[in-house]
Amino acid sequence: MAHDPTSIPAVQPLDSHNRRLLENVHPTAWTNPTPPKGGYHLVVVGAGTAGLVTAAIGAAVGARVALIERALMGGDCLNVGCVPSKALLAAAKSWHAAREAAARYGGPAAGGDGDFAAVMERMRRIRADLSPVDSAARFRDQIGVDVYLGDARFVSNDAVEVDGKRLLFHRAVIATGGRAAVPDVDGLADSGYLTNETFYSLTERPEHLAILGGGPIGCEMAQAIARLGGRVTLIESGDRLLKNDDPAAGEVIASALRRDGVEVLLGARVESVRTDGAGKTLRISHEGAARTVSASHLLVAAGRAPNVEGLGLELAGVGVGKHGVTVDERMRTSNPRIYAIGDVASKFKFTHAADAQARMVVRNALFFGRGKVADLVMPWCTYTSPEVAHVGISPDEARQRGEQVQTITIQMEEVDRARLEGTKEGFFRVHLKAGSDTILGATLVGEHAGDLITQVTQAMTAGIGLGKLGDVIYPYPTTAEVIRKAADAWRRGKLTPTAKKAFGVFFKLVK
Question: Could you tell me the pLDDT band of residue 433, with boundaries at 50, 70 and 90?
Fold first, then answer.
């Protein structure tokens, strides 16, 4: 039976690039397989990053694996997340650099409004170019997974139904991801708002984009649209941006956004949204006063909600909480046959977190592994300019665990490469277990911070302290020297008055 083409999610515009994308990640002529009589060793529900990696590893070790996807294979990351957003950010950074060349570097002056449609066309082309890796045909023909397109629903503690077919399983993994959480605001539901799922269908630049939420998505898109020439108002109900990062990082990003022309409103609450022709009028409360924001477009980026509806989890004995499917430290649900990973069950809403959990869950589900989520050293990054990257725990979290903390901060303006490139905005802040060089956590704010934080993540994973990182020879001049400077600062801190006195005695004896 061919899959019903009317269930294909809306992907706009339906140009050659998006047609190519759909033929890979949701082909209209797809025929679902016939389930084997003996069932599957592993059934994976959801073909985003978490599901794709789980299915691929399961098949690679010889298990019979079924993978079910109701929308687009590749999930948010390929279709409406990491891939399109980073293409947009790259274009925005290029436009910004061209405009800044004359003032900052003595380069030729650049002007003009640019071509936003060309930016989005490039994004769609690259996305389509990347899509074969996540395609239904590749997973069926090259990896050896039975791929089902359609809505999955658990019908018992060991079976799932899709497209009228019953799939028995020994183990199952729920990897259905999440979606944009929509706040309960008067008039918002009827306002024609955008989310990350619809934002990348734009072909014309928003004249004035209002954004609800100052998290990673809100900050990235605010800067991108502003640098591409649009007017942007960013509305955050909290007292700072990027609430899960170091407060100083949020201050740096707020300053960077404002410099790029974004109106940043902190401590602002949206009271109502009204449509006014093709535009939106937001009534907000800010700094004790009421005001209105009139915008052509509205993007909701106020957090994420897990995709748990319609899965029949109650029939499978799978518990659900406020933040998604409830799992133990080994990602097992209340049904010992079923596990859950990725955005539907994890506090870490990142592609790389889903990937790491997938690698662990196959061992736990099929081979009696004992891997724990708490053992994962999890970095994350917000890809603004400058970038904000973090790994490990914060000082407050460390103190809650009973740890005493020593914090070392190096400003990027102390790094020669950053000064030479005009990117001295930001800092490296590392939190150590007091009395040692054991790294508990770190924040890096600067250009390429997402790449640089990997060295710290590797050190934490391998149990390497900050002192050993300081022993590494860093090419000069590189931005990574900020890590060596932090190690040097730690070593200087070890030179107590007593140690200096001892050295003084030693050198008096040396002739």
Answer: very high
The Cα–Cα gap between 190 and 28 comes to 31
pLDDT band at 110 (very low <50, low <70, confident <90, very high): confident
d(CA 8, CA 149): 10
pLDDT of the residue at 5? 44
User: What does CATH list as the number for 196-302?
Assistant: 3.50.50.60
Rg (CA), the chain: 25
Q: Which residues contact 169 (CB under 8 A, 6 or more apart)?
A: 39, 40, 41, 42, 43, 66, 158, 159, 160, 337
Is the predicted pLDDT of residue 8 greater than 70, yes or no?
no
* Per-residue pLDDT at 511: 66
Between 104 and 404, the more confident residue is 404
On whether the pTM is more than 0.85, the answer is: yes
Q: Are 173 and 180 in contact (CB under 8 A)?
A: no
Phi, psi of 483 (to 5 degrees): -70, -45
The domain over range 386-497 is classified in CATH as 3.30.530.20:
no
Domain assignments of the chain as residue spans, ordered by start: 5-78+132-180+305-367, 82-123, 196-302, 386-497
Domains 5-78+132-180+305-367 and 386-497 share a fold: no
**Structure letter (DSSP) for residue 9:** P
Distance CA 58, CA 64 (A): 8
Tokens linked to 259:
């410099």
Q: How is 229-244 classified by DSSP, letter by letter?
A: T-EEEEEESSSSSSTT
Q: Checking phi first, is residue 100 left (phi over 0); if not, alpha (psi -120 to 50) or beta?
A: alpha
Q: Are 233 and 295 in contact, with CB atoms under 8 Å apart?
A: yes
Using DSSP, how many helices (H) and how many strands (E) does the chain show? 16, 23
Q: 446's torsion region: left (phi>0), alpha (psi -120 to 50) or beta?
A: left
What is the DSSP annotation of 345-400? T-S---HHHHHHHHHHHHHHHHS-----GGG---EEEE-SSSEEEEEE--HHHHHH
**How is residue 475 written in tokens?**
């090419």
CA distance 336 to 158: 10
Q: Can you give the pLDDT at residue 9? A: 60
State the virtual CA torsion across 304, 394, 378, 493 in degrees, nearest 10.
160
The superfamily (CATH) of domain 5-78+132-180+305-367 is FAD/NAD(P)-binding domain (3.50.50.60)
- Taking only the tens place, the pLDDT of each residue in 331-342 is 999 999 999 999
Helix, strand, coil percentages for the chain (3-state, nearest 5): 40, 25, 35
Nearest-angstrom CA–CA distance, 433 and 34 = 56
Neighbouring C-beta atoms of residue 23, cutoff 10 Å:
18
> Looking at this protein, which amino acid is placed at residue 361?
V
Q: pLDDT above 90 covers what percent of the chain? A: 90
